[in-house]
Design a protein that fits this description.
single chain, mainly alpha, two-stranded antiparallel sheet, 2 strands, binds zinc ion
Length: 170
């Protein structure tokens, strides 16, 4: 039986999640540098919002990323979804999973694994939350979420390097 204090804390966090999720879309400049967002409500589940300026492949790509967050919301429940995003390590796992979904989508559209993988690796590195995380930690987190894609990307990269004409030293 959880203590009354725990229940109260859970209640406060849940209420906070709802209020924050309701208010965030109203904040000015929400879309500055952001393509999409998935809100995770208790009972209702995931609600997605996309930057109205997006269309075509860019929107589809963002959808692949946000759909992964929606899945996490349904899988984890609103409370854990909210709490885990406050802890850098947990947030990294969640983001790595979403970036992997994005890269897998791009590869399914005919993209090259080595290019798509490098792209999401860069995007992960550019994420404000992970600025303090080392490149190695970020790379490991990504590889753990999509080992197959990481492997294909590494193989393609090795092939590409082998085929590349040798540059003469200046
Ligand atoms: Zn994300």
């Amino acid at each position: 039986m959880p203590s009354r204090r725990t229940l109260r804390l859970v209640g406060i966090i849940l209420a906070g999640t709802v209020v924050a999720a309701l208010l965030l879309p109203l904040t000015v400049g929400m879309w500055q540098g952001e393509d999409g967002r998935t809100f995770c409500y208790p009972v209702i589940g995931p609600v997605q919002r996309y930057n109205p300026e997006l269309s075509g492949d860019l929107l589809a790509r963002t959808r692949a990323h946000e759909d992964a967050h929606a899945l996490q919301c349904r899988r984890d429940g609103a409370l854990w979804h909210f709490v885990r995003r406050l802890a850098t390590r947990q947030r990294l796992i969640a983001e790595a999973e979403a970036y992997c979904a994005e890269a897998n989508w791009a590869v399914a559209q005919g993209g090259q694994a080595r290019i798509e993988y490098a792209r999401v690796q860069d995007e992960l590195r550019e994420t404000g939350w992970f600025r303090r995380s080392s490149d190695e930690v970020l790379a490991d987190a990504l590889a753990a979420q999509c080992p197959q894609l990481a492997e294909t990307a590494a193989r393609e990269e090795a092939d590409w390097n082998a085929r590349k004409p040798r540059r003469r030293a200046a």
